Amino acid sequence: MHSLISHHRNPDILLIVMNITFLIPALTAGGAERVLSIMANYWTERGHAVTIITQFSTSMDFFRINPSVRRVVLHPGRPGNTVFKKIVNNLAIIRQIRNEIRKAKADVAISFLDQMSIWTVWATRLLSVPVIVSERNNMEMHLLRQPLKGLKALSFRHADAVIVQTERILQMMRGYVSTGVVIPNPIPEPLLTMAPSPSIDALLQKDGLKKTVISMGRLTGQKHFDALLKAFAAVSESHKEWRLVILGEGPLENELKKLSTELGIACRVHFPGKIKDPERLLKNADLFVLSSFYEGFPNALAEAMAIGLPVISFDCPTGPRELIRNNTDGLLVPPDDIPALAGAMDYLMTDGKERQRLAAHGPEILERFGVEKTMDMWENLISELSRNKKAGYRSFDSTGTKRQ
Predict the structure, then answer these.
(1) Rounded distance, CA 272 to CA 242, Å?
(2) What is this structure's pTM?
(3) Please, where in the chain does CATH 3.40.50.2000 lie?
(4) At a CB cut-off of 8 Å and minimum separation 6, what does 301 contact?
């Protein structure tokens, strides 16, 4: 596999206007959607022609997209209830994607999320367009139906590059892809000024509490918010001035609310849903906790550190260890160890000076994963893939050698 480690700008990279096409199911609230919006806006602001192709309507957009970006919405037929009809529908979508990539005169196609990436790889077969698949999670841990997992592995072998966020994920994916490239997620600098938000101010004032533990993510089993609730309940009696805020939506919302009631902490736990300005809540919080079973590259954790919050995380596979320098800008605790998580929370909730010490180092994460640095890595990769295509190479083999 090929691990892209150059952090230095190549003076020849993207000096001409590039036609860059992104593909993703929708721009709803989510980590992949957040990363795509940062990348699309960055390249648009630098004069490149950007197209975003989605499967679902722009009415579902959650993130701000530069108005100069060209938007395309696919119009797939109704999915059938037989294998034959499903195959016909998938072939029709692949044909639409192929036509739209041609219409965009794409110099590179970058796809996000499972099904869209599979379609994109097959839509671009025999086209002279470099195809980059951005894998957003740990494929070994990510719960997929076995047929789709196998189809992903087959499809991704035909991509010119498969992006992962950490070296550990790259090692785990050796059995799934032949061309892997490590590029971390771009972490934007926090907004220095934020407009007042009456709804958020009301949330932070209605319970009369002074301090906030915050977490953020989709309310699913992967994020393991039940562990966070249990850890908070274990320390709540010793820290009666603290509340817990969990940002996000998902299928486990009612279950988590029920658990908070059973634990006797419902009056101190808030589920405000997904909000467009989480920076304001993060900036007004006192401690961030990530309780996931597994991650790829946890954007929420990185953005909490960038904004200057002390953080605690399970040392789950993969992501937190790559972001947190233990005891320097945050604390790592053993995976799924609820007593250890409660102990770390109790420690930082008690010691304000220790919270300040960790928080002071948090923004240093921008030196490692800031937008300029990570986008340089993307541009290095695109430049190299474009040269390979012109020279007749497909991509790299497992040792990083170009292959024909």
Answers:
(1) 17
(2) 0.87
(3) 19-186+370-403, 198-367
(4) 288, 290, 295, 311, 313, 319, 320, 323, 324
Specify the CATH architecture of the domain 19-186+370-403: 3-Layer(aba) Sandwich (3.40)
Q: Could you tell me which residues come within 8 angstroms of residue 390 by beta carbon, excluding any fewer than 6 positions away? A: none
| Predicted pLDDT at 144 | 52
Position 278 scores a pLDDT of: 86
Q: Could you give the angle at the alpha carbon of 365 between the alpha carbons of 361 and 369, nearest 5°? A: 170
At residue 178, the pLDDT reads 72
Q: From its phi and psi, is residue 174 left (phi > 0), alpha (psi between -120 and 50) or beta?
A: alpha
Backbone φ and ψ of 246, nearest 5°: -120, 110
Taking domain 198-367, whether its CATH number is 3.30.460.10 is answered by no
User: Residues 6 or more apart from 361 whose CB is under 8 A from it?
Assistant: 325, 328, 329
Closest C-alpha among 30, 42, 142 to residue 379: 42
Secondary structure E strands in 135-256: 161-164, 180-182, 211-216, 242-247
Q: What pLDDT, on a 0 to 100 scale, did the predictor assign at position 141?
A: 61
In 206-365, the DSSP E strands lie at 211-216, 242-247, 269-273, 287-290, 311-314, 331-333
pLDDT at 393: 54
pLDDT, averaged in runs of 10, over the chain (404 residues)? 43 68 95 95 96 93 95 82 85 95 96 93 92 80 59 86 90 78 93 61 77 96 97 97 96 98 96 86 94 92 96 94 97 98 98 98 96 95 84 48 37
Q: How far is CA 135 from CA 184, 247, 254, 309, 386, in A?
A: 11, 24, 30, 28, 20
Strand blocks (E) in 199-257: 211-216, 242-247
Mutual angle of helices 31-45 and 299-306, in 10-degree steps: 60
Which neighbouring-strand residues pair with 165?
none
Rounded CA separation 179/371 (Å)? 24
| Distance of alpha carbon 319 from alpha carbon 248, whole angstroms | 20
Return the structure tokens found at 327: 């005891």
